[in-house]
Write a structure and sequence with these properties.
Lysozyme-like; 197 residues; alpha/beta; six-stranded mixed sheet
Amino acid sequence: MTDIAPASPWPQGWCPQARHIASPNFGPRPPGTAINLAVIHSISLPPGIYGGDEIERLFTNRLDWSTHPYFEQIRGAEVSAHFVIRRDGELLQFVSADDRAWHAGLSSWQGRDNCNDYAIGIELEGLEDEPFEPAQYMALASLLKQARMTYPLDHIAGHEHVAPGRKRDPGKAFDWAGLQALLGWPSSCFPGAITSP
């Protein structure tokens, strides 16, 4: 697991403790935008398979669509997230947090559309509705604490909360109460009523 201890603000939006893999799939945030939301996702490629380099290949437009039948469903997708947290807690960063990653799609949070404009996207390697690893929660909490030292981060939501009916991740097994306990942040930072899986 990568220990992400509190440190100085991230140079140009890059977390020094992350392994950097630059994605071409990003753009500028609207001028003057406050980055105050973290959106939690889950991803595995192919679904339910962990540990390969397919996520890295997808986010860098190098995925060979012919290597698995599932990939035909996402052929041509140009997507990214700022961060990916592997099952063992390893932290990868694909886009500077100063920039706009392409992770949330059509989305809205608290009446504000286009979450990509003001959110940091964090993918947990996993399958929606299946448990995540303790190392992932530890890495996620550390990452969020450090992000909050750099940006006015005051809300955390799942993809399912910003795109209800369209997305289900990170899913029912995600331990929101456990994450809140690790962070020590107030309930107002989290979506709805906090419950453990």
